[in-house]
Amino acid sequence: MHRSGFVNIVGNPNVGKSTLMNALVGERLSIITSKAQTTRHRIMGIVNGDDFQIVYSDTPGVLRPNYKLQEQMLEFSRSALVDADVLLYVTDVQDTPDKNAEFLGKVKKMSAAGTKVFLIINKIDLTTQQTLEDLVDFWHRELPQAEVFAISAQEKFGIEQLFESIKLALPECPPFFDKDQLTDKPARFFVNEIIREKILLNYDKEIPYSVEVEVEEFHEEDKIIRISAVIYVERDSQKGIIIGKQGSALKKVGTQARHDIEAFFQKQVFLQLFVKVDKDWRSNQGRLKHYGYNLN
């Protein structure tokens, strides 16, 4: 008997969806920062065993969109409700349950209709036992058909039990992907994401959210990978901030990104970064499609 299925991870921003995804997959596929809206795409991570294949899907945090990029991010999250064999609705001990009541309402309907929903309470290392018990009671009332799991994805607490429960919940099915495949994304995608993560970590205010990264060249040789990537911003003033005085800020991002890219590919990397302006790209449907934000 072989089990396979799509296990989709959804929830509000900053509840630890990407940390959970990486813990379940055992690889660092999703970037993680303390800033909201870190995840922009729907990212698949595939875990294989002799008798199972789990296709995890990390999604952007659910939010009320203010521009077209956020509209596309919300569509990625909504699409995860359509094809889930198991839905992981992630909250945490500080989350506001009614922050996105409409989206939660869709999850409730899925659960009531028979879709397997696991309600994940994350970051339990940051609360008291009484508060946790109150949260478990609350979610049992909100989603009576769902199984509730209390975990700490950061500390890897409760992950193994959750993983085994997910396996048992999968339908009997042959694998959807080759057994040696880790993700549906190409190598260039993870280079983009690693660079963008360093920008999120090194810049404040609106700058990280105005940035998109695109790999223009990716040449893999026997001992080295040669990469050329462009960091796009929306304004000329933002370009100067990304570069920094005498290029110091951009150099710091490049050094940090190269280190992580080398760890990801297990190979020496030569990385060149350039900064260009793509005016108002976040509100331009054509540019969003070019950057991979169109579901169709």
Strand content: 15-25%
What does the overall shape look like?
Answer: globular
For the biggest sheet, the summary is: 6 strands, mixed
Class per helix and strand makeup = alpha/beta
Which keywords apply here?
9 strands, 9 helices, alpha/beta, six-stranded mixed beta sheet, 296 residues, three-stranded mixed beta sheet
Verbal overview:
With 296 residues, the protein is α/β, with parallel strands linked by helices. 36% of the residues lie in helices and 24% in strands. The protein has 9 helices and 9 strands. It has a 6-stranded mixed β-sheet with strand order 2-3-1-4-5-6, sandwiched between helices. It has a 3-stranded mixed β-sheet with strand order 7-8-9. α6 packs across α8. The longest helix has 18 residues. The mean pLDDT is 92.
List the helices and strands and how they pair.
Elements: E1 3-11, H1 17-25, E2 43-49, E3 52-58, H2 68-79, E4 86-92, H3 101-112, E5 116-122, H4 129-142, E6 147-150, H5 159-169, H6 187-202, E7 212-220, E8 224-233, H7 236-243, H8 248-265, E9 268-277, H9 285-290
Parallel strand pairs: 1-3, 1-4, 4-5, 5-6, 8-9
Antiparallel strand pairs: 2-3, 7-8
Helix pairs in contact: 6-8
Short description:
By secondary structure, this protein is of the alpha/beta class. Helices cover 36% and strands 24% of the residues.
